[in-house]
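DATA SHEET
Item: assembly model
Revision: 1
Owner: S.N.
Input lines:
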Amino acid sequence: MIAHITLTLPQFRRGFHIITEHIERACVEQLGQLPLNGMLHVFIQHSSASLTINENADPSVRVDLEAFTNKLAPEREPYFIHTYEGDDDMPAHIKASLYGSSVTVPIINGRLALGTWQGVYLGEHRDHGGSRNLVISVVN
Amino acid sequence: MIAHITLTLPQFRRGFHIITEHIERACVEQLGQLPLNGMLHVFIQHSSASLTINENADPSVRVDLEAFTNKLAPEREPYFIHTYEGDDDMPAHIKASLYGSSVTVPIINGRLALGTWQGVYLGEHRDHGGSRNLVISVVN
Amino acid sequence: MIAHITLTLPQFRRGFHIITEHIERACVEQLGQLPLNGMLHVFIQHSSASLTINENADPSVRVDLEAFTNKLAPEREPYFIHTYEGDDDMPAHIKASLYGSSVTVPIINGRLALGTWQGVYLGEHRDHGGSRNLVISVVN
């Protein structure tokens, strides 16, 4: 059985943000609860934002990851030709593919089987990305 | 139910290429149609090419992504020891892992639930990569 | 049907390591065998190690990928603020997100449908990462 729900995230500023609770809450509200046993897939329907899994505790990890990412894919590279949507646009597309557009997590005993220190991150790669739409799929 | 089909892509030149229609067409031809509700997984059986999701509209995104990728993982790095398959080979392996070997997309109402501006990209990272084999899995 | 098993890997030194056989052996030992038809998902429950798919033959690919990765995300970047867990910690978080925390592979005729030259890699990004826990999920 596969159930899909949609989740419109609140607007986040550029950077990495933990959204594990947003996802879990949407599942409880729209599905009642997670199955005892299954798989959770989260997909972001945008090409200038990403989903990844990383440390859920110290916020400095998100700050450093954002700083690294901006250095890795800087704005205003002289060779960019996709420039008319703003300086932050082409780097945002690059970051979206580097980090990826979905994550998959096992569901065991009705809970996401994340490690103790893991959380799901939204990578908001635009300065004013607006609300982002996710499709959450629960397979069981 | 899980159905697997194989798709041999035509040869693409080095760079990023939209293959959403190749995938959809293979599903229609080999499966009749997509299920109303399910998941699509696409896997590339090669370690010097990749699959990712990014913008489906302006071709300049693919051009800039390829330029960025070549700068990120350049050829003839003095420390490379895996060199006997050509200058483009080790960078191609690096790019394959950075972008990944599969994508998963929800299927809702018989259609891929991609965002309006999203398409599936083949990342062809070799100069003469030849035909690439994909395994498409439809779960419902 | 979805079956989850857990696999605690032996300790690996920092770098990339092929773990395809560890995964296959765990499936045989804990599930009896792989289904004829299905999907395999492998998830790493840590945010300083990664899973990716790359060449299974020449070990020089793993050596070069590790060298590239250390150059891409170097230690002791002056802007890092997440530094109290050691010089290798923040780069390890970065690498975990760049390469990803899970891989999905189709199962066809009771075998992983990897390409001839593909294997599953553990990316151990810490100097002393210890044993890493994987959740292996088989969907059929």
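QC remark: Chain B is about 25% helix and 35% strand.
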